[in-house]
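Exercise 7. Given the components listed, write out the predicted structure of the assembled complex. Treat all entries as one system.
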Amino acid sequence: MEKEKLQKGINDLNKIRLSEEERALILSKVLAGGSPVWTVSPWVVFMKTHLVALTSLFVLCLGGYVAVASEKALPGEVFYGVKVNITEPARDLIKIMPEEKIDWQEEKAKRRIEEAKLLVAEDKIDEKKKEEINNLFEKHKDEFKKVSEKEIETEEKKRPEKSDDAEKGVIIENKNNEKKRDKLDDDSDDKEEKEKEEDAWKTRKEELQKRLDERLKKLEESKNKVLEKKKDRAEKIDR
Amino acid sequence: MKEIEIKNHFENVYKSFSDEIFRFILLRVGSREDALDILQEVFFKFWQTLGKGEAILKEKAFLFKVARNKVIDWYKKKKPASLESFFGEDGEEMEVVIPDEESYVKINLSSEASWVLGMLSEIPPLHAEMIKMRFVENMTPAEIAELLSISGNAASLRINRALAVFRAKLGIDLENG
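Answer.
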C-alpha cells in the first residue's frame, strides 16, 4: 500500500511541468535579453554616442528658452512640470553606470531640498507645494534605494563564483576543441582562502550599505530641516 | 555557427530540457515565481555561452549544473540558514539546500507527492538530495557524478547509502519496488 503511494507520489512529482504560457514567456524573455553576441543594448550605445546631437535636437524642438527656464523653475511655476517630468527623466536615461544613477538620484533629491529652501526664503511655500516636494523626494529616495541595491548586486556578481569553475568541467574550450577539465580544488588552504574572501566581501557589503544609508539619512534630515523652518517661523509669529 | 542556427539550436534544447530543469529548481526553492526567475537565468546563461561560440559537450549536464549553482546562490541570498555543507563518506564536500515543508504547500502538489517530500524531510538532507536526483529527476549515477563533480564510484556510494537510510527509517525499498 505504502509502496503504491510512494510510486504515485514520485510519478506526480515527475509530472511537474511548465505551463505553455510560462514556457513561452521564459523563452521570449531570454531571447529578448538580446542577441547573445551583444553585451550592451545598441540603443544605449546610440544614446551615448549621439548625446550632444540629441540634446541639441531636444533644445531646438522645445525652444532654448523653455529648456533653460525649466531648470530654474520652482514648484507652482509654469515650467516646473517640464523640469520634473521631461528634462530630469531624460537625464535618467543617459545615466548608465550604477554609481552615476545613484549620484543622479541623490542630485535630484538635493534639488528638491534647494527648491524648498528657495520657496521658504521667498515665503512662497504652502501645503500643496510641500506635498509636491515631499512626494517627489520620496520617489527619488525609492529610486536611490533601488539603484543602490542594484549596485550591491552588481558588485556581488563580479565576485568569482564557485559555479564558473564547476561549469568549465562540461564545456570544451578553445579553438582546437581540446577537452579541458578543471577539477575542484579541495585543498584545505583553498577553503580557508575562500572563507577569508567571504568574510571580506561581507564586511565590504556592510560598509557599502552603511555609506548609502548615511547618504539617504543626510538627505532626509536636510529636507525635514528645511520644511520645518516654515513651521517654526509660523509658531514664532503666533506667539 | 550563424546567429539563426544558434537560435534554433537554443530553442530545441530549451524545448527538450526546460521542464526537467524547472522541476529540479522548483522542488528546491518551493516557489513557482522564484523557480521561473531562476529558470530564466539558467537558460540565459546557456544562451550567452552559445553566443560566445563555446561548444558545450553535454548540454543537459551543463544546464543542471548551472541550475544547481543558481539554487545555491539563491539560498545564500534568501535563506542562508537553510544551506548546509556536508561531507560525503568519500570526503567530498557538497552543499545541500534544505527546503522547508511550508514552501511545498505553495506549489500545489498532490497528497501523495507531498507525502513523498515529507518522507524525504525525515532523512538527512544529503541522502534526501541523492534520492530526489536519482528517483524524482531520474538521473543516472553517472549524471549525478557529473553534476556534483565527483567520481562515478562516489555517486554510487552516496546513492546506496541514501537508499539504505531510507529503507531503515521508513521501511520502504525504493529500488526493488
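Discussion: The interface with chain B takes residues 2-3, 5-10, 12-14, 16-18, 22-23, 25-27, 29-31, 33, 35-37, 161-163, 166-167, 169-173, 177, 179, 183-184, 186 of chain A (CB under 8 Å). Residues 37-41, 172-186, 230-239 of chain A have pLDDT under 50 and may be disordered.
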